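Incident log, structure service

09:12 report received: a user says their structure output differs between two submissions of the same chain.
09:20 pulled the input from the user's history:
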Amino acid sequence: MIDWDEVFKDASWFHWTGITPAISEGAANVCLEAIQAANRLGITVSCDLNYRKNLWKYGKTAHEVMPELVAGCDIILGNEEDAEKVFGIKPEGFDAAATEGEVHAASFQSVCTQLMARFPRARKVIITLRGSINANHNTWGGVLYADNRLYESRRYDITHIVDRVGGGDSFMGGLIYGLLSYPGDDQKALDFAVAASCLKHVSYDYLANDEITDPQQGIEKMTYIETARQQFGNKAANEVDELLERNAALFAGGELSEEAKDAFFTAVTKAYLECKEQAKKAYGRKK
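09:34 re-ran on a clean worker, output below:
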């Protein structure tokens, strides 16, 4: 028997995801114990619905198991597929396959209100909004519903995606941080969560770069670096990376200025010519 009082000693927040109860019935039962203990101790409970159909293999479905777990949550995070697949809740008039990158946040207020009606303990419901243009280019944003008000984040264009894995986890980590750090400012908490997740898609390095205050700026930088890498190789990418590090002031409003763009192409051309010259020399020596 787990001593939950000891486990949760000094804790103020407990978070779980739909992965845990999907793994096994035992894991689902322990997750429920933890949620109930956290409720008893007055600890905030959050969840990421995170539906993964291929994990539910032990004889029970998410539709059977998840409602009792989510009923104990104060904060609920999901996307339109999670809500539909697990609870049969979906936004009116929305087709994810037809978004072409254009996701209208207001369409998801109905999902939030339906989830709150189903789970009255919930104080906030958050929906992540992904518009898929192609595998390397997505739009990204989110909405947060609380106190009968819908908060919308800005929409980011994420180009040259490095890895989508962990996008939801980084969003939730950012959201928990935001809600704890900016009490009473749900807009700021949502904006922080979206920004943290957005940068996770493209680069780990920029999360630790104090010079970047605008996530779109970080994405813009990464786009130029990855474009150079794809077209001319690692040397060109490194050259552009160094250029942008030395000239952070060239950015204005999250986008490269014309001066910065000229410098970028100059750097790429220089790196390309150097690589070409080195290749000629190497080929000559082989002959």
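09:41 both user submissions now match this output. Likely a transient worker issue. Closing.
09:42 reviewer note: The chain has eleven helices and nine strands. The two ends are 74 Å apart (CA to CA).
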